[in-house]
Design a protein that fits this description.
By secondary structure, the protein is α/β, with parallel strands linked by helices. The chain is built from 13 helices and 9 strands. It folds into 2 domains: 153 residues, Mannitol-specific EII, Chain A (3-Layer(aba) Sandwich), CATH 3.40.930.10; 131 residues, CBS-domain (Roll), CATH 3.10.580.10. It starts with 11 loop residues before the first strand and ends with a helix.
Amino acid sequence: MKLSDFLAPSRVIIPLACETLDDARTALLERLAASGAIGDLERLLSRVVEERGEDMVAIADHAFLLHYRTDTATSLQVAIGVYRNGIRRMLAEDASQQAPVVAVVVGPPRLAARQLQVVRGLARLLAKRESVDALLDAQSPEAVVRLPMLVEHDLPEQLLVRDLMTERARTTKVDVPLRTAARELISSGLGALPVVDDEQRLLGMLSVRELMRHLLASEVLSDGSPRVPSPLYAAQRAVGDVMTRQVLCVAPEQPVAQVAALMINKDVERVPVVRDGRLVGFLTRGDIVRKLVEP
């Protein structure tokens, strides 16, 4: 399939005379609703104002790419708006970003895999300056839909978890002192460590969430002062005492789009990749986003 298969002149706005990204997003969602792609616009609008990080890819000063997987969507469709003067996105402390193109992708959960392919294709396209220039030079919505970069752009092949995962992930063992594992998490910037045995069988997961729940109250990471005296709890705890044994795992042969949807639904940032019960890799939301926006 081609990217142009998901676009129509009725969902292209030139010029998209909106100064802010919020206004541009609303205008494009209204076009999508008018085309029948969204069954309940008000419900979707109440959801998008949350501005979750996973909903948007800001592509330098080229474009804003917004994507929503929602059960209010009846089909997978794309809307594009172009405004030569630039559309502004406000950031913290009066800072802002500006770009001339806004693209919005909506799709139902059953089309999550295809939607990820569309988002990835658009992200790669809009990262190119010549693609943005072509959109700016288009004189009508019909001209946008006929652009060769859209008509000739094949959707990328379906990505598998093995294509993105970190193969040699950091791990820990059940008998490692909790203090040692906690320091490794902090120093490495990791959010979690898979817990394995000597044969790399996955036994559980130690995350910052478990550390906060089990460690901070007893000040294991403090200077050892007895302000909260619990020596047996604080000094003798090992990873195996605290780790969670109910771990969401994925297989290396699973489609990335399927796993991304699962991670969003379950609100998890990272998942171990397991084959025959043994850890073979690690996948994070950041890994997926980086692949989406790479040129």
